[in-house]
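quick one, 153 residues, struct below
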Amino acid sequence: MTTRPATVDDLDAIMALERASFPTDAWSPSMMREELTSPHGWYVVVEEAGRLIGYAGLRAVQGAADADVQTIAIADGARGRGRGRELLRTLIAEAARRGAHDLFLEVRADNPVAQALYASEGFQELGRRANYYQPDGVDAVVMRLKVAGWAAA
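---
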């Protein structure tokens, strides 16, 4: 298993996983390309046996107090083996390196597995955004992590 920074060359594999993971609200290839090439974005991929099995993205302007987890996705057959946690920790460490104090994310209210992962790393629920995920009409749970507290632990 290898974790490495994502590049535009990974776009097709990322988009295949994006569509499989988020069938009703997947990002478009152009949106993902913009994320991969933005100076404020930072994406990583996990490969196993030469195949991309996961990716994650962070939006963090260097020196800004806030950062955002944009996305985390793990291929269906690779879930439950700590890959998502590894990606999340990699994003948190990068947010700390960029000087972020608070790391935010939105997670689907109907995804208790992801919510439990985030809570286990110290994220706390701040509130909800009604009908955030479209076209499904699913609420988003907004969560925040105090980066310095995580790093100290």
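The first strand starts at residue 2 and ends at 5.
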